[in-house]
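Give me C-alpha cells for this 359-residue protein.
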Amino acid sequence: MPPIKVAVLPGDGIGPEIMEASLPVIAKAAAGAKLALDFQHGLVGGAAYDATGHPLPPATLKLCDSAAAIYFGSVGGPKYDKIPDPNLRPERGALLPLRKRYTLYANVRPAIVYKGLEKRSAIKESIVTGMDLLVIRELVGGAYFGKKALTKSHAYDVIDYDAKQIDRVLDFAFKAALGRQKRLTLVHKANVLLTSVLWKQRWDVIRKKYPKVAVDDCYVDAFTMYLISRPASFDVMVTENMMGDILTDEAAQVTGSIGLIPSASLGAKKTKWGTFGLYEPSHGSAPDIAGKGIANPLATILSGAMMLRYSFGAEKAAVKVEAAVRKVLAQGLRTRDLAGPKDKALSTHAMGQAVLKAL
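Here you go.
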C-alpha cells in the first residue's frame, strides 16, 4: 500500500514543539498496523500570515485537499490580535474556514480523569474519580457561522440552525453512545432560545431511532453546575456550537489539565481509509511558554490516536497509543502542567520519547 498523505500543520506558539514530540509516536503506531503515513508539513495561522500575508494560504489548502487527514497544532497569539482585518487573524482566518470547507460538523472531545491525576483537578478527588466523558459539539453552525455585524454602537451574531445540521450531529452522537455506555445527554437552552427549541424537537424525533440508548436533556446553565458537582455521572453529551465550545473547556479543567484533552473534527467526507478529519489538541498556542520545551504533548499524541481510529480504521493502533499514555502517567511521569511539588517535570521532547518507549 502506498504511503497515506497526512497534512501536518504545526501552526504557532507551542504548536511546532508538541507536533515534533508527537509525530514519532503516531508513525510507530501506524507502522505496527502496517500503515505508512507520509507527513507533509504546511503553514497555517500566524506563521502562515507572517510568510504569505494570509493565515490559510493556497498551498496549505492544496495540501489539505489532497490529504487523508489534517494533523493540527495550534494557532494564534497576542501578536496576531492586532491584525486590522479580523478575518485574517489565525483562529478566524484558518480554523473556521477549514471546518467549513470540509463540513467538519462533529467535534469529538474525550475528557478523562486519568488514574493518579485525580488530585490535579480543582474539584474534590472523590467527585472527579471515574470521570470519562465524551463531548460531541456541533461545529459548523450556530453563532460562529451565522450572520453578524458590528458598528460603533450596535452588533449582532445570529444563531442559525436547520433540521439537517442538527439531525446529522445527533445521529453521530447516538452512534457514539452505542459504542460506550449507551447513555446520551442533550444540553440546550430551550426555555429561552428558539434554536434550542428546534434542537429539542429534532432530539425527540432522532432518539426514537436508538431505543437502546438511555437519554436525558439538560439546560446548559444547570449542566455547567452538574459538570462540577457530578462529572462521573455522564457518558456522552451533545450540544450546539457555542455551548460546546464553553463546556469542553470546563470539562478539560475538571480533568486537571487541558494539556490532556484531544479532539477530532469529523464530517461526511470519506477516503479509501476512513473518515476525513482534522485532529488537534484542545488547548491554544500558549505563547508564554513557546520555545521553552515545557509544553505537554499528550493532547496532541492522543489526537493522533483519534486520527488512527477515525481516519485510518486502525482501532488497535489507537488503543495502543492511548494505553501508552496511561502507562507513562501511571509511572508518575509529568510535564510541568501536571507536576506536583515533589515531581520532576519532563520536557516536551522527553514526554514524547517516554510515550514512544511505552508504545
